[in-house]
Amino acid sequence: MSDVFISYSRKDKAFVEHLYQTLKEQGCETWVDWHAIEWTEDWWQAIQRGIEGTNTFVFVLSPNSVESAVCRDEINHAVKHNKRLIPIVYQPVEAQQVHEALGKLNWLFFCDADRFVEMFGELVRSIDMDLEYVKGHTRLLEKAIEWNQQTRNESFLLRGVDLQTAEAWLVKGASKQPQPTQLQGEYISASRAAEIQRQQAEARRQQVFMAGVGMFAFLAFGAAAVAVQQRQVAERRGINAELNAQSLTAINLLESNLGIEALVEGLKAGQKLKSATQEVEPETAMRVVSALRQIVYSVHEQNRLEGHGNTIESVSFSPDGKTIATGSWDNTVKLWNLKGEELKTLKGHRDVVRSVSFSPDGKTIATGSEDATIKLWNLEGKELKTLKGHGSHILCVSFSPDGKTIVTGSGDRTAKLWNLEGKELKTLKGHDVFVASVSFSPDGKTIVTGSGDTTAKLWNLEGKELKTLKGHRSAVKSVNFSPDGKTIATGSEDYTAKLWNLEGKELKTLKGHSGYITSVSFSPDGKTIATGSWDDTVKLWNLEGKELKTLNGHLESVESVSFSPDGKTLATGSWDNTVKLWNLEGKELKKLKGYGSTTASFSPDGKTIATAGEPYTAKLWNLDGKELKKLNGRSLVVQSIHFSPDGKTIAAEDGDFTVKLWNSEGKELRILKGHRAFVSSVNFSPDGKTIATGSGDETVKLWNLEGKELKTLKAHSISLAVSFSPDGRSIATGLLDGTVKLWNLEGQELNTFKAHLERVTSLSFSPDGKKIATGSEDNTIKLWNLEGQELRTLKGHREQVNSVSFSPDGKTIATGSADKTVKLWNLEGQELRTLKGHREQVNSVSFSPDHNQLLLASVTSDGEGILWNLDINDLQQHGCEWLNDYLKHNLNGKPYQNLCTGSAAVSPWEQAMGWVRERLSRS
Length: 923
Known about the structure:
Elements: E1 2-7, H1 13-25, E2 30-31, H2 41-52, E3 54-61, H3 63-67, H4 69-80, E4 84-89, H5 100-103, E5 108-109, H6 116-128, H7 131-149, H8 160-172, H9 182-221, H10 225-255, H11 259-275, H12 282-296, E6 301-306, E7 312-317, E8 323-328, E9 332-337, E10 342-347, E11 353-358, E12 364-369, E13 373-378, E14 383-388, E15 394-399, E16 405-410, E17 414-419, E18 424-429, E19 435-440, E20 446-451, E21 456-460, E22 465-469, E23 476-481, E24 487-492, E25 496-501, E26 506-511, E27 517-522, E28 528-533, E29 538-542, E30 547-551, E31 558-563, E32 569-574, E33 578-583, E34 590-593, E35 599-602, E36 608-614, E37 617-622, E38 627-632, E39 641-643, E40 649-653, E41 659-663, E42 668-672, E43 679-684, E44 690-695, E45 699-704, E46 709-714, E47 719-724, E48 730-735, E49 739-744, E50 749-754, E51 760-765, E52 771-776, E53 780-785, E54 790-795, E55 801-806, E56 812-817, E57 821-826, E58 831-836, E59 842-847, E60 855-860, E61 864-869, H13 872-882, H14 884-889, H15 908-922
Parallel strand pairs: 1-2, 1-3, 3-4, 4-5
Antiparallel strand pairs: 6-33, 7-8, 8-9, 9-10, 11-12, 12-13, 13-14, 15-16, 16-17, 17-18, 19-20, 20-21, 21-22, 23-24, 24-25, 25-26, 27-28, 28-29, 29-30, 31-32, 32-33, 34-61, 35-36, 36-37, 37-38, 39-40, 40-41, 41-42, 43-44, 44-45, 45-46, 47-48, 48-49, 49-50, 51-52, 52-53, 53-54, 55-56, 56-57, 57-58, ...
Helix pairs in contact: 7-9, 8-9, 9-10, 10-11, 10-12, 11-12, 11-13, 12-13
């Protein structure tokens, strides 16, 4: 493995020798071919291996190197394997002669010998950037290539820790450069698949072995049940291993920005979970469900248009939103419906189709091509007219709002106005180089043009130049008017978009892309701007220039963005030959909006949520996030609120050392008075007849529903958490001094154990009453038995743990933390999933008691509550609805249609048993 590979022309050898020596002095291992050896197979293989085994590919730009066929082959090989490319300029070159992969990067200029030291410093910084990730890229690439060259022999695949490391690297690669290659992805996926097969094979070996043991036992002792039991164990291990791997793959795909593929994989895992005939471990089931939940609520890509054979250069919605037109480097235009079905292919251009535009009535399509013509078509694909007059390729075309005029921009430095008969009306002259983009104002009186000369210009219909917009530092590739006509957006090769008023004053600069901005578009309501870039992303912005969202998923540069007329869908075309349809609304998490909440609790039937913490008010919500009731108090800033077991009474601390009781209609019933300091925790006994309250006065009090004080337990420290055991016979309290105390209902202290180094903020009994989970300001969660023996310590939160909650089956623990996350754990202390989405610290988490619809509520100090859906049936329904069009109409989606038809996959064991039953029924 080398640090740097230098590609250069032999005519520039003197400069490269100086560069090589300086790199060597810096400790960089550099691969350079010093000899102009004849072209032989062995020589080219050596070059290929040198490129494959290097971390960074440096290309020395000069007139000699850009004309060299060998240099171009070297670049192509580096691009094929997604190598980090750094172009350095030794001698000035014409930009259009440079390889397209280098053209979109920042160049380092070594032309001035006096600045060599300065520029060399920039080069070293570029080489060292994110070096560990890049080394991982090289290492995995070499392994993947070797595997591929050895006919994908399984003995070359990754295993164990190496596989886990590679999968973690693949996840990181989603947001890094250079991106993982397809071969690397296939190599890691094949390794994971082989790992699953090995586990299943091991399970089968155990099955065969134990079957033999069982037969021996049967012959010797008549105990055939042993073999059956061991076979079931082996099968159970196999299905759990497969489900765990599948959910991990789904998340890896999501984090690699392959949303549709991730959702398909998540649905496959969900279907397999539901149809599993062997027992699935609780943590495995939770991994599958939480992975599917994360995908369902994260994915924005809803469909994909695949059919062009080359780059998609332009995308446009029809005015009624029912049709999408796409223009491509394959010289064709295609029409699609919103379901993703290809309707028509328009053939007639002899070169790349650069631009497509619908007429305002939607009956005509205008297309501009590098063959220097504009063509008009009807929706049946019939060519109506060809417009000729430009002296070079057509880069852009647009209709006027009344549909009577067409404006076009060209490489001949002009824009032209035409009528629908193909007559040239006006020529707009004034730009110094090509006109890349044109747009009419909504009133049709003004035209804006963007050019490679770094400016945009405003014109009237007579061809008079009205204003020049100056401010970009490179070519303006896209221009667009806002729907109200008051603002102009421009996108440039200087990586920025800008907003201007009609006087030419710059209003805002949108910064965030790391590549040329090729397309800019306003949403129909004018409140959002979409930009597409050579950094392979689409970004959404508001009018203040704030970045709202980044849409990742295209594998190569984005060339065109277009909003649907209703603003709900964004279509984007890319060099990866696809158009992606993004649903901008997405599947929203259900949220509970308030001022500030510290606690949440489900009603016993799981249909209502109570939250408190907002001054003077507690609130009741339904599962759709709709506010049902307000429970008013004097200064209700509380740590705890709870429903009685029958759901008819709600108890919460009030701010004057009291506890208030309401009925479910929000009517105040009574006030419990007796504490001499703030009340920090309240809880009902399982039979609903007793209420326990913990206070800053270092006591815990027991009350009946009439408000009579039954018992006072002296804790000798402030009680921050109090909970009844499920059988109602004991009470646990978590204290400020880090201890936990257990009491019986007579007030007798049963046990005290030092739980944490810092205060205990929350505690919860497991549903079977055998364990207690505690959360603390020491950032940990601990599991205990009732004798005070520590069973597990759960570590993972970066800040204090504010809340802990057991799932209804007692097999999963949810925790909320000041680090703004919710985490799910199994009873072995293994972290199953981190739920992210909150902007402030999580104060409370609570599982719904409904086994049929598993939900988790979490609330934060900024008043936002989130309902996390963990119901596999509901999640699968949402996932299937989201992918409906893709699965029905996309060729890559159709093989997975059975995921959503209700037909579950049948396991081989089920097939075999069905065959046995059938044979027995016949005999």
